[in-house]
Design a protein that fits this description.
By secondary structure, the chain is α/β, with parallel strands linked by helices. Helices cover about 35% and strands about 20% of the residues. It folds into two domains: about 170 residues, Rossmann fold; about 200 residues, Glycogen Phosphorylase B (Rossmann fold). The protein has a six-stranded parallel sheet, sandwiched between helices. Strands 9-8-7-10-11-12 form a six-stranded parallel sheet, sandwiched between helices. Strands 13-14 form a two-stranded antiparallel sheet. The longest helix has 18 residues. It is globular.
Length: about 375
């Protein structure tokens, strides 16, 4: 319904040298983190920018007033919405309609399959361009982008230019981590799909590799766990009898999240599909060895020189929430035996683990800087200094 009332797209929008980034920036989600990271990168490069908290489905007077002030002050600043296509009309409805005229609207979108749901088509009508974090997502949106004559730019999350908090003073005990054990971290949000994040595969691989070894600990960092009790029950059933597997549902600050990765030795993501893979990328940035499913967006930046990719079989999507279960949709079923072997290798060879982490750090510094973002802003007419 939002598509009927959302403001129409202006042709030939004007551009001024300011960038406005909008999205659910107060929410612990991939899109929310992407908006925060982009804003931090612009700040680092001294590009005039503002960050707006926009919720597509709920109105906030405080957020509306803030948006009004920013949009009226920067009348022709491009608006980059880290909000997926189906919610774009609703997001635009929550903003002052008159202040969207003659403004460049860009949708920054992420999706985790090679085909799009039907409800994504509405969003293409309300953006001038589409920015995506990976080639995988670009290929998914390309058919509809071609239909609606939209430019698609691949702008990976510039995590190398995010805020790096001092975390050394945050102890393992403060984070609920064991003091003297090797820690393997699996971090995910249940709001992002239990089936897609596939934590049971990581649990199974750990059990095969480590059993009940008291010197090794698997940490399951679960966001929004209490909101998805049925999923949580399946996880608890899978770890029953294993005292070296710990569930952590604490709400962590950005600094504490960075500290959690800092104190981990290995980070694992046996996902079935990712549109980018923020957790593995952030772990690589701080020199951690990662074990990941070798499919979807993580395939683009993780290979055997900087991580441990795990083989898979493509299978038809089955999703109990019906979010991803689309006609012709496939995703990966990772090889848990291969993942278990990867865990053993990293545990038994700490020098290899550290070397792999160093290579991972170099790869992310080279791959996820702000260059693509600066080029995208230059292409739409924002004045940037790329020197």
């Amino acid at each position: 319904m939002g598509a009927f009332f959302a403001p129409s797209l202006s042709s030939n929008p004007l551009i001024d040298p300011h960038v406005i980034i909008g999205g659910e920036v107060s929410r612990a989600s991939g899109l929310g983190e992407g908006a925060r990271v982009m804003f931090q990168a612009l700040q680092k490069h001294h590009i005039s920018s503002s960050l707006l908290d926009i919720s597509p489905y709920s109105l906030s007077l405080r957020h509306y007033q803030r948006a009004y002030r920013v949009l009226s002050t920067h009348r022709y600043a491009p608006l980059i919405l880290h909000i997926n296509a189906p919610q774009i009309p609703f997001a635009l409805l929550s903003l002052p309609r008159s202040l969207l005229k003659k403004r460049k609207i860009i949708g920054y979108w992420a999706w985790e399959l090679s085909v799009l749901p039907k409800d994504w088509e509405a969003g293409f009508r309300y953006v001038h361009e589409i920015w995506v974090p990976s080639l995988f997502v670009a290929e998914a949106v390309k058919p509809l982008a071609t239909k609606y004559h939209k430019i698609v730019r691949i702008i990976p999350h510039p995590i190398a230019d995010r805020i790096n908090y001092p975390v050394e003073h945050i102890t393992r005990a403060q984070l609920g981590l064991p003091k003297d054990k090797l820690v393997i971290l699996v971090s995910f949000s249940l709001s992002s799909s239990f089936a897609r994040k596939n934590p049971i595969a990581s649990i199974l691989a750990f059990r095969k590799a480590c059993g009940n070894d008291p010197n090794i600990c698997l940490i399951l960092k679960i966001t929004y766990g209490d909101e998805y009790q049925e999923d949580l029950k399946l996880i608890k059933k899978a770890i029953q009898g294993y005292d070296n597997i710990i569930i952590n549902k604490n709400i962590l600050s950005p600094q504490e999240n960075q500290a959690l990765i800092y104190h981990s030795d290995i980070v694992m993501s046996l996902h079935r599909s990712e549109g980018f893979g923020l957790v593995p990328a952030e772990a690589m940035l701080v020199g951690k060895a990662v074990i990941v499913t070798n499919w979807s967006a993580t395939f683009e930046f993780i290979d055997q020189t900087c991580g441990m990719p795990v083989d898979y079989q493509l299978v038809p999507v089955k999703d109990s929430r019906q979010v991803y279960e689309l006609k012709g949709a496939y995703w990966a079923e990772p090889d848990s035996d291969m993942a278990a072997q990867a865990i053993k290798k990293l545990i038994q060879n700490p020098y290899y683990r550290l070397a792999l982490g160093r290579a991972a750090c170099q790869k992310t510094l080279q791959t996820f800087n702000s260059q693509s973002l600066l080029e995208g802003l230059s292409a739409i007419g924002v004045i940037t200094d790329q020197g």
